[in-house]
Amino acid sequence: MKGIVFTEFLDLVEQKFGLEMVDKIITQSELASQGIYTSVGTYRFSEMLSLLQNLKNNTGIAIDDLLLAYGEHFFSVIENSYPGLLNTYKDPIEMISSIENHIHVEVRKIYPDAELPTFFVESKTENTLVMIYTSSRAMHHFGLGLMNKTFEHFNTKATISLEKIKEDGTEVKFIITKD
């Protein structure tokens, strides 16, 4: 997993819970990296799981809710670092439906060895989108947070629901309808 995912996660933890919480979850997680991340480095996904689990244990907030908040936070990173990418689109459905064929292509230019989830567009109209998310990492609520902020960015409201195709969350169907 790319280091930017870790550095931004720890930034969010610091913003929401303080520097002491960052130190606490790093210490509790007994990380091979010792919690020292660079945005371009590559680290084990197990470290993110450990950080999330310890944050959950210390805050009582469910991991899915933590990932949702993190996805919403991460959208601001995209907004600030890659405004040209967002300006390419005029509509949130169009942007979200292009994750696989455009956005992930751009991510791979920056992080060639990034292990990204796949998004298969099952159906798409002007106001609806049904996509299948597949990832060994079961971070679909992170994706949901990014989608929520995408609609907010375009000043558009939508209902986004998800159905787990596989109980472990490695395959999920997103059903998006503009309100």
UniProtKB/TrEMBL annotation:
Which Pfam family, giving just one, matches this sequence?
Answer: HNOB
What the entry lists under Gene3D superfamilies is as follows: H-NOX domain (3.90.1520.10)
Q: Where is the Heme NO-binding domain?
A: 2-161
The family database entries (InterPro entries) matched by this protein are listed as: H-NOX_domain_sf, Heme_NO-bd, NO_sig/Golgi_transp_ligand-bd
**SUPFAM superfamilies in the cross-refs:** Ligand-binding domain in the NO signalling and Golgi transport
Write the protein's name.
Heme NO-binding domain-containing protein
Cite the source lineage.
Bacteria, Pseudomonadati, Bacteroidota, Flavobacteriia, Flavobacteriales
